[in-house]
Amino acid sequence: MNIHVLGFFTPWIIYALITLLHYYLPGRWITGYVTHSETGELLKYRLNGRLVLFVTVLIWFLLGYGNIVPLDWLYEIKWSSLAGAFVFGLVFSMWIVLPYPSTGKSFLADLFLGRLENPQFKEGRIDAKMWLYLIGAVMLELHVLSFLSHHYCQFGSISPGLILCTSMLSYFVLDYLSFEKVHLYTYDFFAECVGIKLGWGCLAFYPYFYLIAIWATVNLPNPNTPTWLLICYGILFLLGWSLARGANMQKYFFKTQPNKSFLGIQPETISDTYKTLLVNGFWGLSRHINYLGEIVMATAIALSVGYPEVLWVWLYPLYYVALLLPRQIDDDKRCALKYGDLWQEYVKKVKYRIIPYLY
């Protein structure tokens, strides 16, 4: 078979494998935060992302060391693979949008943003949003490992900066799949539908674009970045992770166990007759401190490869800025409608939107 044809269908095959593993491997049923649109009951999710990640990576290495599939295969067919994922993402998005009634928005808006809020299949064993994030995360990890293998094959060693970048991205994936239940309480699940933005975004954009720093520098030699500077980049990444993970975990504990302290922080709230808002800890620093954490992590990843003069590496943190600033504005509007006067009181207490003392 032509290598380009095989490359085109490689993501289709990998996505099918991940889906089968997700469906058949053991998982935990977790009650989420979102309610069913018809019954009003809280949706349940079957989660096993970390196990799926481990098994998929194990299969990938066995295929590589068995000389069945080269370990750098995803690098070798990167462009045809991207084309295959692009088409797969569009086909999925059409399939999940077109058969369902309009939301009242324009056709293009429905196609991009979606019509179904929380689609689940196979008696709830597969939730569309969790499946999409699982596909994107696992495929991203396979790309990272494959590109790293290519760099080693080309130079006979791996630069410390590339090792650091790989470690950061791998930790990013592992962390997300280890705390799947926490993300059931994030903006995506209660405020977004499934269309091209989430569907194509997770199937084609997420697993290919997030490694842009590695993609742009994988064929460049070791930049000899000083060790102390690499340590600084690692600390910067951990700072961003602490803000993002800490904020999400504090929110999770507050939603599930309102009176429980988190990292020694006893919840401080404001409330009216029906609603309560958290106003201290991470959520006292800014109204979207987790967004700042995501941007800081992305910046550390861009810096770690040691080629700040390569403009492509900066697309990753710039993407987060472009994604999260409009999301913050939209989320503030949604909260203002939902919480009314309580939100105005909250804004007075927590003045900053994302960056404490600046914005």
From TrEMBL:
Its main location: membrane. GO terms for cellular component: membrane. The chain crosses the membrane at residues 6-26, 47-65, 77-98, 131-152, 158-177, 198-216, 228-247, 295-315. Keywords: Membrane, Transmembrane, Transmembrane helix. It is found in: Membrane. InterPro entries: ERG24_DHCR-like (IPR001171). GO terms for biological process: sterol biosynthetic process. One of its GO terms (molecular function) is Delta14-sterol reductase activity. The keyword Transmembrane applies. It is a multi-pass membrane protein. Belongs to the ERG4/ERG24 family. PANTHER family: DELTA(14)-STEROL REDUCTASE, DELTA(14)-STEROL REDUCTASE TM7SF2. This is DUF1295 domain-containing protein.
